[in-house]
Specification:
By secondary structure, the protein is an all-beta fold. It has one domain. The chain is built from no helices and five strands. It starts with a strand and ends with a strand.
Amino acid sequence: MTGIADDNVRLYLSGAREAGTVAEGGGGPGPLTLLDGTGRFAGVQGSCTCGTACLEKKRNLATIDGAWSKE
């Protein structure tokens, strides 16, 4: 996955949900790994627990709790 901030810097992530569904009302937990980025995110690394909720109109909500570091 790639997160893109308003100033076009990028944060590269890898994640996999370990439970739940993609149907509306579904979701579930899983690990999320911060891999690197550009600009102010360059050198960022870490891991987190990520929870997702599948909302109406194919929208998703993610909550992230973890630790990160920057080289």
